[in-house]
Prior knowledge:
Elements: H1 6-18, H2 20-34, H3 39-43, H4 52-58, H5 64-75, E1 90-93, E2 104-107, H6 109-129, E3 137-140, E4 148-149, E5 155-158, H7 159-164, H8 167-175, E6 179-180, H9 184-187, H10 192-205, E7 210-217, H11 218-241, H12 251-258, H13 265-277, H14 284-288, E8 294-298, H15 307-314, E9 319-321, E10 324-326, E11 329-333, E12 346-348, E13 354-361, E14 377-378, E15 382-383, E16 392-398, E17 406-418, E18 421-429, H16 443-454, E19 464-472, E20 479-486, H17 492-505, H18 509-516, E21 524-528, H19 532-542, H20 561-569, E22 571-576
Parallel strand pairs: 1-5, 3-6, 3-7, 7-8, 8-9, 20-21
Antiparallel strand pairs: 1-2, 4-5, 10-11, 11-12, 12-18, 13-14, 13-15, 13-16, 16-17, 17-18, 19-20, 21-22
Helix pairs in contact: 1-6, 6-8, 10-11, 11-13, 11-15, 16-17, 19-20
Amino acid sequence: MPIFSCEEAINEFEVLTRDAERVQQDTLKRILELNANAEYLKHFGLNGRMDVQSYKSCIPLCVHSDLEPYIQRIADGDSSPLLTGEPITSLSLSSGTTQGKPKFVPFTDELLENTLQISQTSYAFRNREYPIGKGKKALQFVYSSKQVETKGGIHATTATTNLYKRPRYKEGMKDMQTQCCSPDEVVFSPDFNQSLYCHLLYGLIYSDEIQQVFAPFAHSLVGAFQRFEEVWEDLCADIRDGVLSEKITVPSIREAVAKILKPNPELADSIQKKCMSLSNWYGVIPALWPNAKYVYGIMTGSMEPYLKKLRHYAGQLPLISADYGASEGWVGANISPTVPPEQVTYAVLPQTGYFEFIPLEKPKAEEMENSASIHYIESDPVGLTEVEIGKIYEVVMTTFGGLYRYRLGDVVKIAGFHNSTPELQFICRRSLVLSINIDKNTEKDLQLAVEEAAKLLEAEKVEIMDFTSSIEKSSDPGRYVIFWELSSDANEDVLQSCANCLDLAFLDAGYLGSRKIKTIGPLELRILKKGTFKEILDHFLTLGGAVSQFKTPRFVNPLNIKVLQILKSNTTKSYFSTAYGL
């Protein structure tokens, strides 16, 4: 494998983005050449044509449900070319945290190569600002999931596990000086808690060599250091005595740790001294890993609520948001690593797929609303280089892995251009979160409402550890239900005020009107026991998911009975809004 060069990666990116339109045409042609005999393309009469106009006129826009019959046939063992020219031998499982049911997505060698391409591009730009020393390590909180075999003998697991199982990926990451300090025995452990403990242990043992701290999602980073607060003394004891805690029972992990864990009282004392000197764990990451250059992971969208706590742990270390993609494929790279996560944009790599954008406009009556509206008027999709700065779009992607004109469901804003490729700002998932009748509120609307209400808890020195929502239609009128897990108890009057604040913070015209005429009932705020979201995580793991893939569902579908049961059984208090009168 050629040695990776940051300078060459940046130069290649500059060349490809200077004429993004031509690269897009070439990319689509290559995708269609590779998959020319796919049944899906033949079904719509493309008949070997490879130009953009024929492709758009023949192949309709689609969502995952349109592809499910083909993917199910693949899972059942049909080896004929259904979505791709070559048989698909691996499937990735999406999280399934909202609906309660994971979905299959094809995983191909081309997706692996795209992952490396986008990782190399963003790493090159990061390394220009925050150089990583040769041979240094990364503290990576990554976890595999169990692999299942479909009826047809196809291996299905999470995208993260599919990547980490492939030598090509591990070699590529090692070449970029982003080698995980933990061995495979820890990454592929069947027990998440034991894996997390040992990630921390390896990180401490190699503390002087760690130059970056990473997890796929911001919440995984926050969860790791919340766990560290609980087990740091045990970790110190392991390092001091050179003996792994008896709580770690997986034989393969114990065998791996035994190779590097030796008595080191000096390191244990240093860790203990640093931990005891911290004020409420502020700056624990740079304190224990003094050579770390930054903290890295996906920090946009549903991860934004975790940034306050993550900044607390990171102190003055930069937080850098990871690249923009989904289980289906990659969209853009973060080439501006010094920009805060809340303002990050992603430059689309025109060679990783064929991209279209559906223009979205709010109806005239809603243009002045502050809500993240989903009442959009759609126009015909435009190409990558045809988008306009300041306007919003839904992303459509065609991938090498057989997803054709696939609506990703993400709303993005065009923040600018790098050469001729657009830089996207992620706005929100387009999918509906909260709706009872004519009201429509998105995940972003929910996040803004929670952030507004959280201000009332600051005087109490209480934090919202995590949150979700649902709708309650068992009584008439239906109502919104918001669930909070708090760091400690809060004053009853304050929590009542929080319920009122949440109710008033939803600015969607349909919601405001419905509340005023009482066709939607008072919002209900439910307070949960500590550990409730950990219980939801455990349930997710039983479905075959991985911790590194898990995202707290911001809306729990009424059909997701098990998660709703967990929330209901862990509710300790309930507060109904009086904001619109009783």
